[in-house]
Amino acid sequence: MSFFPHTFLHTRLAMSLVLPWEVIERVIDHCSDDVRTLKSFSLTCHQLTPRSVSTLFAHVGLRVESRDQVLKLCDFLQGKPRLRSLVRSITVSPAHFAASLLYLLPNLSDVAIISRESTLRRSGSNQATNEREGYTPVILHSSSLNCYHRLGTHIRHLRLFHLAFPTYLAFSRVLVAFVNIRELICGHIAVRSNVTTAPLDLVNERLRGRLQLRSLTMDSGVDDAIVAFLSELTQTLVGDLVLAMEPAQLESFSRPWDWTRLQSLTLKFTFETEAVQGISAFLKGFHPPNLQEVTGHLCSVEGGLREIKRFQKDRSKLDACMELENTLLRFPQPRLLVSFASHRYCRKQLWTRELEDRFPILHNRNALVVDSGPSIAVGHEKAVTSFVYSADSTCIATGSLDSTIIIWSFEGLVLQEWAAHTGSVLSLAFSPNSRYLASVGSNSLNFVVWDLGRGAHKLATVEGHAESIECCVWSPDGTTIASGSWDATVRLWDAGTFQLRHSLKLHSAERIWDIRFSPDGRWLASRGGQGSYTWNVASGAMRKTLQERAEGRLAAGVFNPESTRLAEVSRSGAVHIWDVQTGRRLFAFKEHTDAVVDATFSPDGRLVLSASKDKTLRLWDVTGGVMILSLKGHTGRVTAACFSPCGEYVASASLDKTVRLWRTGNGSCVATFSEHESGVTHIAFALNGRTLSSGDSDGTVFIRRMSDVLRDE
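The chain above was modelled as a monomer; its predicted structure follows.
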């Protein structure tokens, strides 16, 4: 983790050194796991170099991936003798682990041997038999093993990953070579031959008498036979045991009384009903005499919060959680550790809040621990899918693929966040008074209305569609909520009672992707799989305006401020302008060379802005039907665009990871914002024009004050 930007540190040292050296050294030591920061320290000031380099070598493991790298490293170390004693960890492939490294690195204590050629894929308990033929075997010559045994007596931690040994004897000999290890970590280990020989028994007997192992970790992908072998070999030795395997493989640990020294046990599993039940069943029968600390390590895969939310809907899943909690509580020091690869540090409270309902007793005992991820950025953990300002311009609501909704202040602070649905958040809509928020989740037959004035309290769950809902929108007067569905209907609901008022049905069976009310509330535009439609809300009369088959989502048409005209985008690269009352097409703007993804009217209704996959934006005169400006500068597809409330500027978002601000008067680019680290997909001005916000495909949201952007205007 990096605490000091390079420019900041350089400026501070240039002025004066006001911190005691002890403090500076502690700061350097605190950054021991951050190679980039340590390099910056060493290059900033020659007085910082010794400590930074020492920390770099002592705490950051070296990775050697070829024989050429081994030779170069050996030459380097021979020329820098003072650095040899600093290296503590090294990662090598079995083919390039030269014994000379052990000789040159007297304080080396951690060795990871990883084969890039062998990649195991779990496919049940018989995976070794089914996949063994595809392995590249690890063959270590006896002379190499003898060198490791003689020179590697100082190795205390050995990690073996993605290795396929020809026989059990070959695997055993590696352990003999590093007989002084205290910790062994194995993952994805296979043996090609099941044949046992007399020498294997002799080697195992030798191991039992000399092995000093105290900690054993068997990660996923380890052969059943290797699991059984290590279990029998280490059961009277280890005090710490970490297992990540299928419930069937746990049968190798069926004699708990043999694990006489075991004090700490960690079981890794995924958030699936069968896995949770399997862990509970195993722990009920596994009670070694000295076992104190038992940790269930819940490792999520892709589901994240969505995975957690699904457990709310299934009684069997909730029962499995309850059973796991009760089983863990039988041990003196129970703990449930939950970790997710994409988890942002700042969302630790949100995760804990979602999990405490499933494991209330563990939470009350402070035994429920959420492992923080490396990212300290504020935002969602997956792509932003919906982005909307409140009518009073005081906050922004964003929804994401990670199933969460975040309410942001205009200063960029998270006011509220919660897991809203079991699937992705597809659509958000503020009520005109900004107090309520309607949301739609993927693969759901209902939408939810939240009361933001009561801490995102779920006010209502509105049901009635026969198939999944895709979108929702609030009417301008706040009395009606409209929802569009795959069942080819748009349903109008009373916003006070949430009762169905009217159902607008298409003549053909097609999905409805998006809907929008006109500013006066009289009309409703929708976009479906076969084209675009306009509805008279009062009479229910429907008119098809654009015939175009859509293979994916396209936005519904947008109305001008007077509700008299409608602009619709097209995959053909055209923008169509319609007379709402008569249904007559007024213009078809066709200057784009690729699909148009967004269009909007200027606040005065005289201009239309279009954004296209051809990397450009275009401004059109609605009265004359001609193009006024072509805005070029993006190097990737433009994904969204909008006018500022004053009409003097337009903003655009692009997959080139930038947001651009343009003048409508002359088409010049006022500013380019490059804060995003992934493609920008959403952009919007606050209705009062004070802020410009954007969201991207990795879940990050940026909010900018227009007064800062236009300071010199």
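Residues 54 and 82 are 10 Å apart (CA to CA).
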